[in-house]
Known about the structure:
By secondary structure, this protein is of the alpha/beta class. The protein has helices at 2-5, 22-39, 41-52, 63-71, 75-96, 136-147, 162-170, 181-190, 207-216, 241-252, 267-281, 287-297, 306-316, 328-332, 349-354, 390-407, 410-422; strands at 8-12, 102-107, 110-118, 121-125, 151-156, 175-178, 200-202, 221-222, 230-235, 259-264, 299-303, 320-324, 340-343, 380-388.
Amino acid sequence: MTSIHSKIEYIKAPGGGGKKEMSDIAALVSEIVRAVKDQGDEAVRGYARKFDKYEGRPLEYSAAECRAAVAALDPQTRADTEFAIDRVRAFAKAQLATISPLETVEIPGVHLGHRVIPIERIGAYVPGGRYPLLSAPVMSLVPAKVAGCDEVIACLPPNAHSAMVAGCHLSGADRIFRVGGAQAIAAMAYGTQTIPAVDKIVGPGNAYVNEAKRQVFGDVGIDQLAGPSEIFIVADETADPEILAIDLLGQAEHDVHTRVGVITTSREVALRTLQQVEAQLKTLATANVAEAAWRNAGEIVVCADEAAMIEYSDYIAAEHLEIHTRDPHATAGKVRNYGSLFIGQAASVVYSDKCCGTNHTLPTMRAARYTGGLWVGSYVKVCTHQWLEPNGVRAVAPSAIRQSAVEGLEGHLRAAAVRLERNT
């Protein structure tokens, strides 16, 4: 990072405030995970009373309750939810079509291949959060159904908006449970008397949910460890500062820990964007959240040239990366570290967040250096197989025998040798 620092200038540097004390979170989550693992439903209900001030109803939503939640939706809200479901389903189907079974013979008689196998049971965490994010269940549940998972369950906080329950039902959840937070992750990981143990847990959540996913990983699969949301925008002198500021604040209103920034080659664009952010905060209804995020983690940097702009963008490896340049497709071809890419001024994170079809569960905290986001491929296993004819055995056994001898692995040597003997 030292070399890139010499090529950038901060017009607005991140403040670095508002960090959560992770050691305290980890200790509490560890206690919750142990309790749920040992006590099952009893612990889940206890934490619902403690954290959500909730008790009374069964942990699982009944079919009648799910139907009632759907019926209670405003007609336009239902239509918009179904539009999002259709778009995410269509894109997931198109993605799945690119993951094909394989059969190949590279050496005569040696048949290699792989199968694409849906994960049997998926658990989706659907966050409650500050706002009822109606797209959240769509993003986690619909690709699982497209992938062909046998059973898809959803957990959401017990006081979640009924529209979230309706979204889970419309998105294809087989079972829906009133349980949130770290206790939901533990319940899905280890199972309780009511909630089945799953094979993989997906979906975003707060710091407690994220820490719980970290602690149960290995006993169960997870999609990723996601931190607070992020948006960065790569911009040149053609960018519109008003739109840049709108997009920064549109993401900043998610959470006071959201990370937002502009990476530009234009000092004028940088300064005007800073002015726009300050002006727009005065009229933004969610400024109490967005302003804290902007003060804590917002940044605007001016880069010496396009190469430095690309280099710094790849260092940041943002969850959402917008491209606002004269030739956005050309610029897009030069960046490589991002969760999802938004090419050109007409493409906005909000479309992906809500309904255009790509998934909004994406890597944060520089994880885009090595992984992409949630997609239909997250719900399947690509598992290899092989079978050999006699001429295939004769082709590979001698090498295997020699390697085993060098390694001193007598059992391996015998396994190869007996097959060579019987196929010669």
